[in-house]
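CD8B protein: structure, please.
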Amino acid sequence: GFCMNLLLSQTPKHILAQTNNKTEILCDVKMEHAGVYWHRWSQEKQIFEFLVFSSTLGKATYGANINQDKFSVHGTSSRTSYILHISDLHASDNGFYYCSVSQSSQLFLGSGTWLGVVDALPLKTTRAPLSKKPVLCITKSKAAGKKGACSPLVWVPLAAVILVLLLSLVPTAHRLHRLRRRLWLRAHRQ
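Here you go.
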């Protein structure tokens, strides 16, 4: 099974990167391990995909059909931090990335990092937790004359993030519906 664990932390929590660029995700490990696994939850494909395992000796083992030139892992000499490097970014790289450690037949997951790849980055980004109210976008024309709208460079990535989060709720809602239906059927059979 999978277990979320505070002994594995990832930074940053969110990445918005431009197509064809590269990025990296840091995983800090505060527990004994033989190496770190990296996985991606693809919202588009609805799968949890194994990317690469990096042993404490620095040997990498890749998942099926994973491009070894695209993903690489570098660990510190203390074996407490691992960095996943992702190059040549495309929209197919969108998703949640998790580092994990295996112990006693359980896979302990890190805190997760959301990666969104866009063709053009907004001119100015503001980082705010997703749980808070959205930040209002004020353009120069709005500040001066109180009219106009946000630039598409700002609202398109924001809309993409909201869409991904809403789509991630679909499997949970489906499972709850099936559970409610089973309980209703069980109650009416008795």
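Notes: The longest strand covers residues 47-55.
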